[in-house]
């Protein structure tokens, strides 16, 4: 923000000066935080007075959202703040409790299903392996066609 000295320079204010103000120019600023420094290119020996600039505060970090919200809590009465705190903490505790309960339930269901259904799966697999072994044994004893197809349908039954 540029500022001219009022001594010998005519003041032309178009009303637009307030639009160029920095967001950091707030009443909370201490006067010693702002000082006037000469602009580069002006010399004290020249006949015109130097144009002076205010120090910018761009190196300071902006407020975070949480800091702004915390600052807004002062405008609410104590009962509203304590009620909001209670609701927030109870909700967070409930969500955590529900998450732990769901983890426990899933663990119980998964481990119980493995214990209950694993023997059934193993027995079914064992029965399939035995059936396959019988089929292979029948194929070796009677030949390739008889093990797979059984009796031939086109031939009459053999007499006894």
From TrEMBL:
UniProt subcellular location: Mitochondrion outer membrane
Annotated Acidic residues bias: 1-15
Membrane-protein topology: Single-pass membrane protein
Broad class of where this protein is predominantly found: mitochondrion
Disordered: region residues: 1-48
Biased composition (Low complexity): 37-48
Pfam families: Tom22 (PF04281)
CDD domains: TOM22 (cd22884)
Signal peptide: none
GO cellular component annotations of the record: mitochondrial outer membrane
Keywords for this protein: Membrane, Mitochondrion, Mitochondrion outer membrane, Protein transport, Receptor, Translocation, Transmembrane, Transmembrane helix, Transport
Coiled coil: none
Basic and acidic residues bias: start-end ranges: 22-33
Keyword Metal-binding in annotation: no
UniProt GO BP: intracellular protein transport
Family listed: Belongs to the Tom22 family.
Descriptive protein name: Mitochondrial import receptor subunit TOM22 homolog
Annotated source species: Bicyclus anynana (Squinting bush brown butterfly)
Gene coding for it: LOC112048231
């Amino acid at each position: 923000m540029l500022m001219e000295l009022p001594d010998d320079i005519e003041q032309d204010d178009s009303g637009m000066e307030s639009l160029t103000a920095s967001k950091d120019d707030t009443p909370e600023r201490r006067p010693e935080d702002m000082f006037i420094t000469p602009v580069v290119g002006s010399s004290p020996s020249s006949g015109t007075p130097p144009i002076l600039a205010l120090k910018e505060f761009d190196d300071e970090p902006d407020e975070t959202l949480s800091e702004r919200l915390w600052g807004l809590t002062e405008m609410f009465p104590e009962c509203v703040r304590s009620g909001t705190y209670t609701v927030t903490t109870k909700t967070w505790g409930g969500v955590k409790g529900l998450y732990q309960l769901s983890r426990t339930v899933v663990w119980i269901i998964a481990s119980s299903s493995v214990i209950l259904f694993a023997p059934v799966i193993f027995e079914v697999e064992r029965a399939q392996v035995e059936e396959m072994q019988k089929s292979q044994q029948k194929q070796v004893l009677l030949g390739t066609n008889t093990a797979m197809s059984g009796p031939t349908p086109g031939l009459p039954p053999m007499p006894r």
